[in-house]
Amino acid sequence: MSTRYLIVGLMVLLACGFAAADGDGTSSAEDEKSTAADGDGTSSAEDEKSTAADGDGTSEVKDEQSPVEPAHPNHKVPVNIAEQATDPSAILTQLGFFYWNSVDEDGESDGSTLLFQPVLPLSKTNVLRPALPFVSTPSPDRVAGMGDLFLLDAFFFQIPNATLGFGPVASLPIATDDKLGTGKFSLGFDFMFIYKGIKKNILGFMFYPQWSISGDDNRSDVRDLTWQIIWVNHFKWGYIGWTEQTGVVNFEDDNNWTLPIGFRIGKVFAAKGGKTLINAEVESYYTYNSGHGDVYGLKFAVTLIKPKWMRH
Question: Comparing C-alpha atoms, which of 261, 288, 289, 283 is closest to residue 99?
């Protein structure tokens, strides 16, 4: 158990250290170069124009982290690609690969998962997010193979400083082994709220309930609620955020519920040639389980961002 707290504690200290380093009042090389170019210490005409447009006496500092244009200029999402890559409501084509390995309180492996989860824009206000896991259960009765296919479709609507999203969800029982899936075809809906009123921050939550409607009569029914807290804070060097692990309330298992706690650190950077952007991140998490024992572990993610694919 001490190892669990050590891992989570180190991630918290690292995140706080990066945040402090970003806010220490020093300017980057690009900022110094810009100041030297002005020469006289006064702002340029463009700066004054930006200040006037802002209306509050402060100039908007353009984030130069993204080397390419926004994926969909007509869609009201943050113009910076790095922020779009961490915004669940962004209309941006992404191919995500996630791997995590969990350990129980006794230090024994609780299994590992490799998840392929692309983000596929279907229109300027609609994305499809399929998720296909490849799971390895712990020994001694280890089973490895493909899990059930999960589909989440979301339609987004802009409100002041925020985005609302909702749509249908479905789980298809295609697992290669009974231990890796539910054996049930399930349907439900999703709801998402993303607040963007704080500069460089993305805040929100999402949830989706599911109910089984058909499948193996010898398997337990599906009746659960999955939820996720969303928080990301961007800096010049990258970003920090709350864990992407989801919590679940299982109404078919005596209302057993889980609560994930953790932090992630990541960065969006351009691959060679600048045509492909990569979002790489690592996170440490601890998941409280009300009925089946807690787990903790590490999660790694690599996402390929293709702004010009499926552009509308």
Answer: 283
